[in-house]
Amino acid sequence: MEKHVVVIYPHPDDESFGAAGTIAKFRSEGVPVTYLCGTLGEMGRNMGSTTFANRETLPEIRKKELKDACRALDMELRLLGYRDKTIEFEDRRMVAEHIKAILEEIEPTLVITHYPEYAVHPDHNALGAAAIEAVSMMDQEKRPTVWAQAISNKYKEELGNTDISNDIHAFFDKKLEAIFSHKSQVDGMFSQFKETKNVQGDLKEALKERFVKEEFYVWNFGQ
Q1: How confident is the model over 60-70, as pLDDT tens digits?
Q2: Distance of CA 35 to CAs 40, 180, 203, Å?
Q3: Which tens digits make up the pLDDT trace of 83-97?
Q4: Which of these, 46, 64, 16, 26, lies nearest to 189 by C-alpha position?
Q5: pLDDT in tens, 158-184
Q6: How far apart are CA 101 and CA 151, in angstroms?
Q7: Residue 204 backbone zone (phi > 0: left; psi -120 to 50: alpha; other: beta)
Q8: Which alpha helices (H) appear in 44-145, and where do they start and end?
């Protein structure tokens, strides 16, 4: 059993779409989970079909949604404080040092992050690379395992089959609760369903087909 799991993604909702079932499984086993969220997603384009936010108000809206999702998943939240859509321009070594200091404080046995260059969004790739660099800089005896999540369309063709494939059927409702906590993001996608309990029939089955497996590669540090 893991001692502590740290999840490192750049945006509010990355944790819910990417790893909520895996997080819920760890929490059901009594394993503490901490989310290091890189930004508040303040540059997101989704302001609603009836505009509900602007650039000044969106960060606080997304922060509240993120806290709601973390509450649903029963995990600790720490904000890294970077600006949305700019992580690729940060000094990677400085970001890695920032993350490393937190990891050395928490002492996790597992880190979950994005697989650099196979995670579509520049923030995903940049923060995933910094997180992996942070782990690589740690004392080898205290270094956690890293699960790296690739999400580009053809990643398996280039990387091969994943090492970890978590079937999260048992935790799918919890994943939906976390996803629907990010109301500003999902209302546009699923506008006819305002509450998790109303996600039924074809939509729920479509979501299951897409999200019921959460897959990761075990990062090889070459040692």
Answers
A1: 999 999 999 99
A2: 13, 18, 28
A3: 999 999 999 999 999
A4: 46
A5: 999 999 999 999 999 999 999 999 988
A6: 27
A7: alpha
A8: 58-73, 92-106, 122-136
**Token pair for residue 184?**
């500003």
Alpha-carbon distance 6 to 103, whole Å? 8
Give backbone dihedrals phi and psi of 12, rounded to 5 degrees, phi first. -60, 130
Q: Return the residue matching tokens 């782990």.
A: 135
5 vs 145: CA distance, rounded Å: 10
Bridge partner list, 147: 112, 218
pTM of the model: 0.91
Please name the residue that has the structure tokens 């750049």.
Answer: 10
How many whole angstroms separate alpha carbon 96 and alpha carbon 38?
Answer: 12
User: Around Cβ 212, how many Cβ atoms within 10 Å?
Assistant: 16
